[in-house]
Input
Amino acid sequence: MITPKTMLLSPSGRMGRKDFWVGLIILTLLSSLFNFALQRLGNSQLAFLISIPFPFLVLHMTYCVYGKRLHDMGRSFWPLTGMIVLLIFVAIVVMLAFGGTEYFSEFSQYDRKEDIDPEEIERIKNAYQKNLSEGNATVYNVMASIIFIFTLWCGTSKSDSNANSYGKPK
Output
């Protein structure tokens, strides 16, 4: 069994299915705990300073957990990187499809240096708010599905039973 420290902070090596699920649970719990703590701190300066490194730490821990599992399957980090790029692409496409292009088009008629009447800004926001909120729900559902499928693939695929370029099987 791999230690939680090695599991979450070292991207090298291999991790079997059981350790992957344990690592994923620990990562989820830590992220949830951290988000809860940030919400309790509110909009304080301390919360802001603490929240700056958080996304990078979570990304690193994600690469460690998923990366070790991919290594155990005989693969590199590229499928994980591809999934992250796909998530960004899907988010942009779905947001644009649900009123995002029209929303930006409304604002593009104004010059960058021009002051826009606050009532006009509010009118534009209200006109596209329903479409944008529907888009947010769709983005969330599509992205959650991609992550779920990728996690299921990583968590259920067989390990490479032989030593590979990432180390010996655990």
The radius of gyration is 21 Å. The chain has a mean pLDDT of 88. Residues 118-156 form the longest helix (39 residues).
